[in-house]
Amino acid sequence: MTIPARWLRRILHAVFPMPCRLCGQALRDDPIPFFCRPCWSRITPIESPACPRCARPFPSPHALSHSPGHLCGDCRRRPPAYHLARTPFAYQSPLKEAIVLFKYHGKTQLALPLAQLIAGTGAPPADIDAILAVPLHPRRLREREFNQSLLLARHLGRRWNLPVPPSPLRRTRLTPPQTTLTRRERLKNLRRCFAVTAPAAIEGKTLLLVDDVFTTGATVNECAKTLRRAGAKAVYVCTLARMV
Hints:
It contains nine helices and seven strands. By secondary structure, the protein is of the alpha/beta class.
């Protein structure tokens, strides 16, 4: 007789007690690693109207009532290189704690449930040829031992039946973390720090670029510029969360 997965989790947690990383409640048959059901259920998509191009939420709930195509000020002044961005969740608790555990503490068990959050908010554009992940610099990859964006991309590829090929997009310079910089510094920090090593692999293709957190959009925008210079037809962006 096969023991249901929820009972296996309950037995495991009874032998090796583990508290929810957010509220401290003892886990029992909770399906998400490190989080109880009530805490995980608090992760909900951003509901306010957002810029149709970069997905930045507008402060007013009526922002798009009379002009559905209205773009935010940044997209009007400096149109991004990507076609559209999709950033369904805010970088706030409890998702913030989950991303920190996943990205900085090596809890790769969270890659699947985090990718499922993205997939649960809708399908990708119908014309996507392949999914690419924002790359890490080789030194940072050696330090972290995994690329969190690539793990998300692989799970999304399986969910959406889209290929996630070996990426021709490479990071050529080691740069300070974007979260430590001002907006102007972020833009300068990323300039010309990506390269495409095999242009033939992306020429004429429509790509979906995956990252974990959308801060100002400078990283994904620079990646999109690099991919389009190398011959990509269009680049869409999908991130798990965004700073709001």
